[in-house]
């Protein structure tokens, strides 16, 4: 048997799928990830722009750690414990330890910043340490071992090391040769193990699954089905090799998706390039790198290793007084849960928690100008820490742009007043903050869209590749009673395994202040009209109920028992006496149908309801818990909510889960068109009247005149 050479094996790894090619891009001499003293060329619309992060300083209490601060934290940690200097300690995450909310809210620009601290999650000696570093004093404030189950977010080093372990196994290498795959074409990924009991107890484990790159870059469509390896992450040893025997490897033809390589005919007329022009320049500005001001909105935006993008201190100007009013203190995707619906041995563990197991920011590569973001976009970098504590710049991770797609903000034409021509219409221009992450086979696009009428729309779109299963069958007529086992046949020898996507958002709504908010459940109740009182037989009546405790706010949506859900400040009243509020408007959604005692659902218990409201606790940020990798589900949103704390007229947090069931189809192959789900946060008696009533329309002389060519 030929001994595989590590030098010539293509190992494409992502933690749960971190590409090896990405690793070269991250740390190579020409990488886009640049350390503290180097200058980064933007990948935006103007490649001449430069951002030098080496001298940046924080200007706002919520600004992320700077390059200099990350390097200072590293120095402090190396002096704190010899495990860092020896290399036995690994940094799994490093971020700003945000000041207490009251201090942030009271802070004014020009004032001295609150004490800057870093929160570090590090792992050594089989224990997870949560370390707080005070940057002002230059010392470690606390070093605590986390008592909950689970392990910290994976690092790229973890995934790369684990992916090479199977090659030490004679059994594994024989299985590769038996399938006729060259080691030079081998592409291995590291799906997370989840938690199912004894096999995962007392050690960090990970699975390794392999594909072939022969004749395509889309290796996800060419799995080596039935073969996987369980690896001990700390000892870097093989625990188990499972080989269910060679199953036909799906063909490479028709799988390529790169524009310069594929030769796919397009049977449609060409769509000419399109761009929104702004003759007077953009209407928004970004101050000090993170504070965004646009129209009547002000908010803070930053990149985050775990959450991807965080929106903070969103305020909107009052339409009557011009006073800035608080809407949301902090909003971000708290967890992303993707369970696959195949109980077989090589698939049952595939139930991913992408934010807590790998990080939405860790896998967010540079956005593609003109395609991910329009020409008028402004780009923001991410600054993170590597496993050895060095600073990393993730260029062009977030983009901001104004959007106008011909939508209408409001309109009315009057036809009942004689001899009067009234046709009033206003364009809807919005501001979008966007980031995209490539969590292995799937790509997710996160949009926070701000409207001048006070509405915030949050959209999550999914694209990328399906996680597929190879099968001996190449036509549905051959499947017989196996047709519904794991999913439909989407190409020859390829099954698209059925799965779910659930994204749970942490929405710290602070309507006109943090301390006096309540959840009001507005119920539409059907009433029967007494006989003889009206030709009508039934109607709907609105009844309002204030949630008293957290269990009152564990909410499952139902089309046939409709509610609206308002977060209100009962101490801020309109001129008519209505409490100022915002309501959450769900879009298309799905519920998890897994049994509550199923191990993936125990860990993903935050999807047991679509809406939750909890008492604010700064330690309760992540719906699946701080340590979610192999966690047992003992520190989830469900656990916190079951404490049933009082939430009436308190500082409260709204949690919303959007989701969709995905039954794959042929159009999802080899790369799926984008599918999106969204929800809205909309003013409800927050303004005295329509806040965009006085907005001016567009006129011909406001814009360049562009006319289409005459048709031939």
Automatic annotation (TrEMBL):
Ranges for domain Copper amine oxidase catalytic? 275-693
**PANTHER family associated with the record:** AMINE OXIDASE [COPPER-CONTAINING] GAMMA 1-RELATED (PTHR10638:SF69), COPPER AMINE OXIDASE (PTHR10638)
Question: Cofactor: bound how, per the entry note?
Answer: Contains 1 topaquinone per subunit.
Q: Any idea which GO molecular function terms this record carries?
A: metal ion binding; oxidoreductase activity
Instruction: State the EC number(s).
Output: 1.4.3.-
According to UniProt, the name of this protein is Amine oxidase
Is this entry keyworded Disulfide bond?
Answer: yes
Keyword list (alphabetical) reads: Copper, Disulfide bond, Metal-binding, Oxidoreductase, TPQ
Q: State the similarity comment.
A: Belongs to the copper/topaquinone oxidase family.
Q: Where is the Copper amine oxidase N3-terminal domain?
A: 152-249
| Organism (species) | Cardamine amara subsp. amara
User: Copper amine oxidase N2-terminal domain spans which residues?
Assistant: 60-142
Question: Which residues are annotated as active site?
Answer: 354, 442
Q: Name one Pfam family in it.
A: Cu_amine_oxid
């Amino acid at each position: 048997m030929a001994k595989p050479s590590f030098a010539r094996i293509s190992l494409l790894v992502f933690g749960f799928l971190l590409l090896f090619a990405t690793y070269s891009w991250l740390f190579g001499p020409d990488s886009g990830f640049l350390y503290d003293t180097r200058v980064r060329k933007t990948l935006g619309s103007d490649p001449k722009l430069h951002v030098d992060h080496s001298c940046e300083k924080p200007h706002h209490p919520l600004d992320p750690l700077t390059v200099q601060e990350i390097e200072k934290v590293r120095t402090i940690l190396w002096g704190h414990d010899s495990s860092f200097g020896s290399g036995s300690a690994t940094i799994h995450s490093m971020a700003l330890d945000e000041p207490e909310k009251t201090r942030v809210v009271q802070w004014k620009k020009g004032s001295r910043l609150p004490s800057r601290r870093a929160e570090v999650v590090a792992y050594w000696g089989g224990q997870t340490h949560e370390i707080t570093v005070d940057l002002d004093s230059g010392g470690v404030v606390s070093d605590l071992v986390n008592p909950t189950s689970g392990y910290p977010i994976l690092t790229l080093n973890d995934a790369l090391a684990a992916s090479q372990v199977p090659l030490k196994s004679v059994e594994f290498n024989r299985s590769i040769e038996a399938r006729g795959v060259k080691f030079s074409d081998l592409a291995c990924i590291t799906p997370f193990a989840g938690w199912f009991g004894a096999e995962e107890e007392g050690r960090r484990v990970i699975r390794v699954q392999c594909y072939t790159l022969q004749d395509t870059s889309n290796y996800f469509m060419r799995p080596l089905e039935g073969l996987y390896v369980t690896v001990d992450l700390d000892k870097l040893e093989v625990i188990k090799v499972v080989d269910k025997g060679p199953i036909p490897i799906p063909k490479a033809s028709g799988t390529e998706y790169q524009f310069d390589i594929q030769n796919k005919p397009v049977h449609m007329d060409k769509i000419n390039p399109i761009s929104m022009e702004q003759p007077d320049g953009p209407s928004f500005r970004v101050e000090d790198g993170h504070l965004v001001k646009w129209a009547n909105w002000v908010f803070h935006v930053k990149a985050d290793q775990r959450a991807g993008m965080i929106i903070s201190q969103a305020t909107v100007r009052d339409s009557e007084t011009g006073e800035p009013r608080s809407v949301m203190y902090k909003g971000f995707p708290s967890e992303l849960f993707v369970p696959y619906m195949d109980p077989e041995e090589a698939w049952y563990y595939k139930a991913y928690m992408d934010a807590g197991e790998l990080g939405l920011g860790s896998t967010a590569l540079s956005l593609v100008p003109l395609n991910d973001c329009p020409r008028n976009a402004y780009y923001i970098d991410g600054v993170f820490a590597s496993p050895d504590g060095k600073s990393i710049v993730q260029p062009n991770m977030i983009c901001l742009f104004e959007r106008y797609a011909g939508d209408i903000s409001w309109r009315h034409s009057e036809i009942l007043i004689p001899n009067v021509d009234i046709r009033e219409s206003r364009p809807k221009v919005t501001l979008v903050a966007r980031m995209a992450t490539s969590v292995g086979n799937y790509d997710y696009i996160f949009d926070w869209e701000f409207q001048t009428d006070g509405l915030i729309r949050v959209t999550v779109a999914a694209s990328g590749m399906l996680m597929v299963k190879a099968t001996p069958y190449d036509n549905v007529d051959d499947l017989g009673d196996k047709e519904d086992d794991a999913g439909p046949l989407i190409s020859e020898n390829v099954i698209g395994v059925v799965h779910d996507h659930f994204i749970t958002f942490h929405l710290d709504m602070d309507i006109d202040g943090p301390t006096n908010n309540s959840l009001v459940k507005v119920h539409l109740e059907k009433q029967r009209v007494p006989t003889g009182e009206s030709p009508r037989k039934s109607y709907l009546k609105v009844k309002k109920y204030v949630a008293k405790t957290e269990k009152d706010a564990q909410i499952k949506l139902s089309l046939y028992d409709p509610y609206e859900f308002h977060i209100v400040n009962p101490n801020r009243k309109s001129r008519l006496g209505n409490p100022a509020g915002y309501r959450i408007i769900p879009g298309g959604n799905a519920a998890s149908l897994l049994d509550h005692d199923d191990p993936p659902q125990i860990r993903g218990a935050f999807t047991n309801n679509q809406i939750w409201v909890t008492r604010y606790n700064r330690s309760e940020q992540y719906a699946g818990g701080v340590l979610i990798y192999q966690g047992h589900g003992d520190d989830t949103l469900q656990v916190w909510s079951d404490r049933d704390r009082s939430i009436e007229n308190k500082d409260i947090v709204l949690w919303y889960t959007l989701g969709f069931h995905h039954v794959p189809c042929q159009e999802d192959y080899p790369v799926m068109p984008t599918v999106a789900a969204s929800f809205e946060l909309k003013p409800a008696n927050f303004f005295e009247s329509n806040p965009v009533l006085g907005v001016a329309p567009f006129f011909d002389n406001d814009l360049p005149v562009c006319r289409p060519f005459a048709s031939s």
